[in-house]
Amino acid sequence: MNITTIKDASNDENGLVSMISVSGGGGHGMAEEVALKKGPWTTAEDAILVDYVTNHGEGNWNAVQRNTWLARCGKSCRLRWANHLRPNLKKCSFSHDEEKLIVLFHSKFGNKWARMAALLPGRTDNEIKNYWNTRVKRHHRQGLPLYLDVHDQPTTPTTPSLCVTPTGSNTNTNTITNFDFLHQNHHHDQHHDMFKSSPVLYPAVLESEHHHHSPISPRAQPSHRSPLSSPPSYSPHYFMDPTPSNSNPQLSSLSFTFQKPTPVPSTPLRFKRYRSYPNFSLYHLPSITPYSTSAPPDQIADLDAFKFPQPNNSSFSPQYFQTPVLDYERMVSPSNFVFSSKLEHPSNQFSQPQLQPEVKHHDREFNDPTFQTSSGLLGDLLFDAQALASGQNSKKRNYFSLNQGNDVFDGYQNFEDCPLTSTYWFSTSGVNPKDEASDLSKCMNEDMSKFLTVMPSTMQGTDRNNNSEAEVSNVQSSSVTTDDNFGLDMKPIASLFPLSNATNHGENQGYYYYWDNLPGLC
DNA sequence: AAGCGCAGCAACCGCCACGCC
DNA sequence: CGGCGTGGCGGTTGCTGCGCT
């Protein structure tokens, strides 16, 4: 059937009517004129669509037009249903927490609105997209970085860290995470990301090496309609700004508790285009990256686009990399250090979440690397990784000490000193711990494993001294991402989940770390 | 009061993945 | 295996309301 728009004309309502020629598949030249309405939906149309979907279920959207008098194309029906009529849609503005999550997700997924929507119950990809686009415009106009605040000076933490603190409080609430976006300092990353994540360019920001704070003009102040408009606490500008917030516990961390969405059989989450993320759910945070020693060669054959230069004298060794097994086409090869060339366009802008407990930040400054790259996102990754490899880094880096109760977990290098509660595991020994943890790995979900796909290059660091190796060990590492820019720093993550001596299989023999006993997992 | 800019939102469009034949 | 229909996704556009000048 061929549908050809013949004309558009204003109809007697708000929308337009597209007169289309619908040619039958028989090719007999029979053509019936069907006027498909465009523009805003009326309540009557909504009622028809709701009734139809109620009786027939979702899908087969073109049948709606055929079986009702609704003069809307299938796409329009689907969109209307998905964005406005389906059950469990939230109609309210984004909450502060949701906004933060969107920022986080965008830093990880890029413009994958549907995936974000899948993680934000009751939200649609369209509204997330709209929110983000508005944010982009606003930040562009104000000269603010998308992920970082212009206040974010080198004295602020650079350490990406994930705090996943299950805090489920009742049986109907699963948990999740404490994401803290405040502690980011990937300036050049942010620039890359801004260019990658949006067609809009940001010359003003790029030109600003110092990220001067751009006062928001009265006119630029969000209107009352904006969910971002209630300064200061409700402004992304504010919450992304760690400088003042450090004195404000409410802004220095954030705990999210999510209502587990009620399954809607008729509206399954679909990941048609992202089948490698079929089960990603925050409710599963954190889960773990299983170990794999290798991937089928044919699966990694096309990953040669970005090979990592490996310094010979570095403690940085491929053996410290382990590979998530679940998605071979999105991996860091442990054998040849190959990064997938299928990076999605945004973001090495790691707006890293952080742990809920109080986190103190300290600066560490490192030397300048010589490694340069022009590849933007990947360049950042390589840049960071190279810096790690060489023990150098031009950026100011930070580490943190974590106060959790009476315990203080200081830095990243003392895993074995931390009291163990449970687990992340990996190996630097070549011994495949996968089998040992097969049960555990069953609980892992793929996406979170991506979150935890990292460069544990410094985890050899049992050295607490200030020699060069220790220095490397203290570098927070770069977040190396695979395809989906899921890359978190292992050390901060691991630091946040103290480990056991029992899991230390000895220096140079690898460590197996475990997170377990975390409520709400698996 | 009018014009303008902005934010928010809804909807459309093109591309493309997928399943079926 | 290729064509076709369907539906999902991301990019984009247009409309509306509000606040400011």
UniProtKB/TrEMBL annotation:
Pfam families: Myb_DNA-binding. The keyword Transcription applies. It comes from the Eukaryota. SUPFAM superfamilies: Homeodomain-like (SSF46689). The keyword Glycosyltransferase does not apply. This is Uncharacterized protein. Residues 33-85, 86-136 form the Myb-like domain. Residues 33-85, 86-140 form the HTH myb-type domain. Residues 208-259, 460-481 are annotated as: Disordered. GO terms for cellular component: nucleus. It comes from Lupinus luteus (European yellow lupine). Its main location: nucleus.
